Structure formats: C-alpha cells, structure tokens
Amino acid sequence: MSLTRAGRLLQSRIKRIQSVPAVFYHENVVEHYENPRNVGSLDKKDKNVGTGLVGAPACGDVMKLQIKVDENGKIIDAKFKTFGCGSAIASSSLATEWVKGKTIDEAQKLKNTDIAKELRLPPVKLHCSMLAEDAIKAALADYKVKQQKAASE
Amino acid sequence: MRKAIALFTTQSGRRLVRNISSLENVSSRREYLNTKFHGTPSRLGLNRSYCEIQGSICWNCQAKSEGKDQFFCGKCGSLQDVNSKCDYFKLYSLSNSFNLNPTELTTRFRQLQSTLHPDKYSNKSKREQTNSLEWSSLVNKAYKTLSVPIDRGEYLLQQQGISIPEDNSTLDKEFLMEMMEKNEEVEEATKDNILELLQTVQNELKEAAVELEEIFNQNDFEKAKFLLIRMKYFRSLEKNIKDKAVRLGAVK
C-alpha cells in the first residue's frame, strides 16, 4: 500500500520536473533584458542622427535604433527602443553597445550572427538578431541620406 | 509502476471520459461519434475520409484501410498511427474555410478527445497508448490554432503556401511609426486611461476580424496576409496594454 503511494508520489514528482519549459534564455539575454543599455531616443531631426525603424511581422515586434555620428564619421551615441520579446530587446541593446565608438564603416560590417552568438540565441529566435542588424543598416542608410541632403543644400 | 501511471492519468482526465468508456469496440465508438455530433454523418463529412489514409495498412492486422476512418482500423479496431500531415480542418471534419462555428468546433473537440484521449488506452497495447497520446496532442494543437481567428487565418495562408515573413520587407514605415507611437503611448499610460487604450485596441481587433472574414470569403490571400500582419501587431499591442494594466493595478 505504502509502496504504491510512494510510487505515485515519485510519478507526480517526475511529471512536475518534466513540465518545466525546455528552453531557457541564456544569461546574456536575461542580463540585457533586465538591464537594457541605451534605451531612449535621439532627436530624429538632427542631421547627425540616423534613425532605423524595423519590424518583425511574424511576431508583431517593432524596433527603433538611432545613432549619432560626429564629423569624423564615428558613432558617438546610440539609443534604441524595442517593443517585442526578450530576445529582440536584448539584441537591440547589445547592438547599440557594439556600434558605439565604431566608425560607420565598421558598424556596417556588424553581422546578426555575431549578435546571435554572443546572446546564444536558439534557432527560433535568430530572426531577432536579424532585426537588430536590419535596424543598424536602416539607421546608417538614414544617416547617409541626411548627410547627402545636407551637402546638396 | 504501471498501476501508478494508470491512476495518474485517469484522475487528470476524468472529466473527459464520460460514458464513452463503456463503448469498448470500435464500431460503437464510431457510431457514438456520428450520432452525438449533430446526427447526420454526411453533413459532417464523416462519410468522407477526413484525414486521408486511404491505402495504408493497419499495423496490427495488416488490413488495408478503406479510407473511411482515420483513427481506427475498420477490421480489428486498433488505433492507427498518427498521420502527421493531417489537415487540421479535416481532422475536425470542417471545410477549409475561415468561417466556422466556434460552438461546433468545441463540440467536435470534446468528441474527438473522448475517443482519443490517453485515458482510454491505459489497458491497451503500448503502440495504441503512444498513438493515442499523439492523436490527442494533435487534436489539442489543431484546436488551439483553429479557435483563434488570427492563427486560423495564418494556417489557411500556410496551406496556400503563403507565410508571414519574419523580416522587415513587407512593412511600410508609416505603419511601423504608428505602432511605435501606440506602444509609447502605452508606456506613458496611467491607471486612468489604460483601460480606455485597451478598449480601443480590442475594438480595432474586432473590426479587423470582421474584415478578415470578408477577405477570406473573396479568397484574396495576399490582402489577407497584410491584414493578418496588422492584426498581429495589434495583438502584441493588446498584450503590452494588459501587462501594463496589471502593473498599474487597473485590473486584477
């Protein structure tokens, strides 16, 4: 009798352990998610500021990433605002950290795979790092357009 | 150990068991499905094979399936292996259309679970137990997809070979800006206006669902795709508002 009970107890314990979600975020993601770097906005009308606005339709995420560039083509500030999942927030937070201090040419070379590697993103979340790369590219493109416009005026 | 498992499963699934447990043989189980579900089998598509396995061979008695029943062998009555390519609509004996009656879907869900739930197979062979587990989880998955308009719409698009992209290519800037601003509005919301924001987005979603139904009726899948993308953004906005409302203490 007591043996059956013990067996049942064990069974329910095992069930409970098995019911824990199988996918955990890596600590790097959690760190950026809980303490996001560079959240906020820069003045988008400033000609030295480039704004990238991108989204992931499949999950309804929206991400804004802005860079401020000095006269030597160096990125002196970066800000982001992301409404989306933890991985998207962490990816954009990391992206702003990485582009700061880089030249625009260096920033152009930043790859989503680097972000995914640093954050140890699982395959289903790879598109979040892709989104961050798109955001950087969009911000750089916006900055270049603004500069050309300013030069031609 | 075996006994312990049986005890465990029967307890968790008692509500689903009902009177079908007495129907041991297959033909009466099938009959139960037919009669309990609105009576006329032909209208419900139960005369058709609703999840084509025609020509497949029963793992137990090697009888060839006549394609009448996707779950049980017509000869020996054993529960067949899961057809993973199974179409969710066919599984539920519904036509592949966006319009569906939610009550009918729920009734059908209960019908299916009452014949396929693992609780019914605790004394059966290992293979049938595994099959029942797989069928049952497929039935759950299908229900989850079909019962939510956005997910149902996305599933229909998938069947047309259209998927909602993960990248940025299909979005226009204006819409993204609008969503950014709406989310910022939520961020700055207070206890006084958060529920108002929730109401607004829920109305938008309701209107979009009506429009989606019309678009699907016209079989305009490309248009449906763009509306579904909008709806996904509104759904994620709605979630953000709800989370915020809880944090503000505006709802319990």
Automatic annotation (TrEMBL), chain A:
<comment type="similarity">
    <text>Belongs to the NifU family.</text>
</comment>
<dbReference type="GO" id="GO:0016226">
    <property type="term" value="P:iron-sulfur cluster assembly"/>
</dbReference>
<dbReference type="InterPro" id="IPR011339">
    <property type="entry name" value="ISCU"/>
</dbReference>
<dbReference type="GO" id="GO:0005506">
    <property type="term" value="F:iron ion binding"/>
</dbReference>
<feature type="domain" description="NIF system FeS cluster assembly NifU N-terminal">
    <location>
        <begin position="25"/>
        <end position="149"/>
    </location>
</feature>
<dbReference type="InterPro" id="IPR002871">
    <property type="entry name" value="NIF_FeS_clus_asmbl_NifU_N"/>
</dbReference>
<dbReference type="GO" id="GO:0005737">
    <property type="term" value="C:cytoplasm"/>
</dbReference>
<protein>
    <recommendedName>
        <fullName>NIF system FeS cluster assembly NifU N-terminal domain-containing protein</fullName>
    </recommendedName>
</protein>
<dbReference type="GO" id="GO:0051536">
    <property type="term" value="F:iron-sulfur cluster binding"/>
</dbReference>
<dbReference type="Pfam" id="PF01592">
    <property type="entry name" value="NifU_N"/>
</dbReference>
Automatic annotation (TrEMBL), chain B:
<dbReference type="GO" id="GO:0001671">
    <property type="term" value="F:ATPase activator activity"/>
</dbReference>
<dbReference type="InterPro" id="IPR004640">
    <property type="entry name" value="HscB"/>
</dbReference>
<dbReference type="GO" id="GO:0005739">
    <property type="term" value="C:mitochondrion"/>
</dbReference>
<dbReference type="GO" id="GO:0051087">
    <property type="term" value="F:protein-folding chaperone binding"/>
</dbReference>
<dbReference type="InterPro" id="IPR036386">
    <property type="entry name" value="HscB_C_sf"/>
</dbReference>
<keyword id="KW-0175">Coiled coil</keyword>
<feature type="coiled-coil region">
    <location>
        <begin position="191"/>
        <end position="218"/>
    </location>
</feature>
<protein>
    <recommendedName>
        <fullName>J domain-containing protein</fullName>
    </recommendedName>
</protein>
<dbReference type="InterPro" id="IPR036869">
    <property type="entry name" value="J_dom_sf"/>
</dbReference>
<dbReference type="InterPro" id="IPR009073">
    <property type="entry name" value="HscB_oligo_C"/>
</dbReference>
<dbReference type="GO" id="GO:0051259">
    <property type="term" value="P:protein complex oligomerization"/>
</dbReference>
<dbReference type="GO" id="GO:0044571">
    <property type="term" value="P:[2Fe-2S] cluster assembly"/>
</dbReference>
<dbReference type="InterPro" id="IPR001623">
    <property type="entry name" value="DnaJ_domain"/>
</dbReference>
<dbReference type="Pfam" id="PF07743">
    <property type="entry name" value="HSCB_C"/>
</dbReference>
<feature type="domain" description="J">
    <location>
        <begin position="87"/>
        <end position="159"/>
    </location>
</feature>
<keyword id="KW-0143">Chaperone</keyword>
<comment type="similarity">
    <text>Belongs to the HscB family.</text>
</comment>
